[in-house]
Design brief:
six-stranded parallel beta sheet, 3 domains, Chitobiase, domain 2
């Protein structure tokens, strides 16, 4: 293997370029048309010009209208409309509340969300069809109505309006496209309906965090129509029947029924493999019928308590109660658990049966007249399919061409859903349709056949070090998103680098591109992925786009080469491959080649120095991709560097980390920051 140490990127490309070039080609060498698994939801952005004007010669009679009791989300929609309208036209739009307003064809308003204007316009909302985030824009008379299936849909409608009227598109929190200097804008007859293919789209990228202090960064996730984090729709569940007691939304089984509070009186409620601080439940209560029923009752009561605290009126979009196993492998192996695993064909069968009974209890409770104020027609109760519970209690039925339950006991209640974190049975470096992932794909198919509400958790980062490039592009592809949309997945959580806190200029290791593709393709899974990538590079890097695309392609080709040379890297749980453990993976010459090419890209954008802010934005986006090779050069090849070279690397990384606001970004889920690690080498 020593010969690898001296290979340059150009040498690697000669061997592996064909691998990437041939992916998806047919026998004639022509690219195959992507297979369609799902035709997609409605994405109709129809808007035709009328003979009237919203803006003429830089002046307008229009004003925004929102409800007097508008939510914070609708107020944000108002602010964003004003922000982008001014960016395009230079005009500050006025706004007013709906008090004493009714629809009149001659009035000139932009109405956002449900309010008196909307309610007297003759328009209706099909909220069931739109779902939470679906968008509708309609013109009635001179008024334009922007609305959604919920307030979040009304907010997202602002971006569809801007896209239609001003060709708006967002690529990073600093790089966007929108017409400017617009003096005239015709009133359009809007007939827009835009419904996401995957209803809920969640992320963990720090650069999309709503807690950022920079306004554009704070709004970036929202502008990508992906501003939820994975637990936004969940009710907290408390450790005790006391709202002041500790609460948790996920990995929370030891909060719902805490070992230290219940074990003394109910030891059969807990796994026989429990260890100090590493607890799990026994979903069969070790075969004790009375304890089993008491266990179900207590879990149901805990969920009901949360429903009395987090009411539909105060928390309208918080409609899910998740009971999630702890993050360990200490599931129960008692005789009854083994018996039920054999009966149902999977260890998860006992969990489905148990949670079905909990769900039935909670549904009956909310139907009682005295609980009317807590009732949620859209209530979802979810459990976690993870680790030992990843396999569903289903089998493939050749006659119907799909998966079916293994036993009547595991037919799931319509209000019971599954949060499927598929970590042990996928290689996220490979396509979902690759042979290595056939069992993982079958698990997705099994769960989607069993429940009407599947939430899927996938992975897009190297868990050993956030600074290392992890090539998940083949997995998180257009075909993947289209496939899971067709299987009816209701929520997708893509876990990328979530260690930036509220900081981070952009996504190092091409994570910005990952987030962009996720956002676009989960909304509309029929979009052309190649076109999206090409457009992203063009808008992000301007004249440096061809050079940066070359760097991207070479990094991907080299990564593919590594998987060929080290076959053990092609594996399930590949997010734990730990590229930090072997300096031969990334020779110094290869890393230097990446850095040199990234530096060469900066030459192409020097003309933008006349606009210092724009120039800084573009150069920072370019420099972000140098963090990976620079960091690996410093940390993995430290002993090969001269003192002068090491000092130069430390200085450059320190400056880049500061420029990119990555000071708080940590190396992995828990650990020191990138900045502290880099500074540590300055002290050696």
């Amino acid at each position: 293997m020593k010969k690898i140490k001296f290979l340059l990127v150009s040498s690697v490309l000669a061997i592996s370029a064909g691998v990437l070039a041939s992916c998806g080609d047919d026998k004639n060498g022509k690219p195959e048309e992507p297979k369609v698994y799902f035709e997609g939801n409605t994405h109709d952005l129809t808007a035709t010009d009328t003979d009237k004007y919203m803006l003429i010669n830089g002046a307008t009679d229009y004003a925004i209208v929102i409800s007097a009791d508008a939510s914070d989300t609708i107020k944000t929609a108002r602010d964003e409309f004003i922000y982008f309208f001014k960016k395009a036209t230079g005009v500050d739009l006025p706004w007013k509340i709906d008090k004493d307003l009714t629809h009149n064809d001659s009035q000139k308003y932009i109405s956002i969300g449900e309010n008196n204007l909307f309610n007297t316009s003759g328009l209706t909302l099909d909220k069931l069809a739109l779902g939470l985030d679906g968008i509708t824009i309609r013109t009635v008379g001179n008024t334009v109505y922007l609305c959604g299936g919920s307030d979040s849909g009304s907010l997202y409608s602002v971006y569809d309006f801007m896209q239609i009227c001003f060709h708006y598109e967002q690529y990073s929190h600093k790089i966007l496209e929108i017409d400017e200097g617009v003096r005239d804008l015709k009133l359009k007859n809007f007939a827009v309906t835009d419904i996401p293919d995957i209803p809920m789209r969640c992320h963990s990228y720090g650069f999309m965090d709503k807690g950022a202090t920079d306004y554009d960064q704070k709004m970036f996730g929202t502008r990508m129509k992906e501003d939820r984090i994975r637990n936004d729709h969940r009710m907290p569940i408390h450790r005790e029947f006391n709202v002041k007691s500790f609460s948790k939304k996920s990995t929370n089984s030891d909060t719902v029924i805490a070992y230290d509070l219940y074990f003394k009186d109910h030891p059969k409620w807990f796994s026989d493999a429990c260890q100090q601080g590493q607890y799990q439940w026994c979903y069969t209560a070790h075969g004790d019928k009375d304890e089993y029923n008491a266990f179900i009752d207590e879990v149901a009561k805990k969920l009901e308590f949360s429903m009395t605290v987090y009411t539909p009126k105060a928390y309208p979009s918080t409609n899910c109660l998740l009971v999630m196993m702890e993050d360990n492998f200490n599931t129960c192996g008692c005789d009854e658990c083994k018996k039920q695993a054999a009966l149902y064909g999977a260890e998860s069968g006992a969990v489905v049966k148990f949670m079905n009974k909990v769900t039935e209890k909670v549904l009956a409770w909310q139907e009682l007249p005295e609980n009317a104020e807590y009732k949620r027609d859209d209530l979802k109760i979810c459990f976690n399919a993870y680790n030992a519970f990843e396999q569903s209690p289903t089998h493939y039925d050749e006659a119907i061409g799909d998966y079916v339950p293994n036993h009547p006991d595991v037919v799931m209640n319509d209000h019971l859903g599954v949060y499927f974190a598929i970590i042990n049975n996928l290689d996220n470096q490979q396509s979902l349709f690759a042979d290595i992932n056939k069992d993982g794909k079958a698990m997705i198919d099994g769960w989607t056949a069993l429940t009407k509400w599947l939430e899927l958790w996938v992975y897009e980062t190297d868990f050993s070090c956030a600074c290392y490039f992890y090539d998940s592009f083949e997995f998180s592809s257009q075909q993947f998103f289209n496939y899971i949309a067709g299987r009816g997945v209701k929520m997708l959580f893509s876990q990328g680098i979530d260690t930036n806190g509220h900081a981070g200029w952009t996504g190092i290791c091409w994570n910005q591109l990952k987030a962009y593709l996720n956002a676009k393709l989960t909304w509309n899974s029929r979009l052309d992925e190649t076109e999206l990538i090409n457009n992203w590079f063009t808008k992000m890097y301007k004249e440096a786009a061809p050079q940066m695309r070359k760097v991207f392609n070479e990094m991907r080709s080299y990564y593919k080469y590594l998987l060929e040379v080290y076959p053990n890297l092609v594996c399930l749980r590949s997010i734990y491959n730990n590229f930090t453990k072997n300096s031969e993976f990334y020779p110094l010459s290869t890393l230097q080649s990446f850095v040199d090419q990234i530096d060469a890209a900066k030459v192409y954008v020097e003309k933008y120095k006349v606009d210092p802010e724009l120039y800084k934005n573009i150069v920072n986006e370019i420099e972000a991709q140098a963090i990976f090779p620079l960091y690996v050069m410093l940390t993995m090849h430290n002993t090969e560097l001269t003192a002068e070279t090491r000092a130069a690397l430390v200085n450059r990384l320190t400056q880049s980390i500061s420029d990119l606001a990555l000071d708080t970004c940590v190396i992995r889920e828990s650990g020191s920051t990138i900045l502290a690690t880099v500074r540590g080498y300055a002290e050696d």
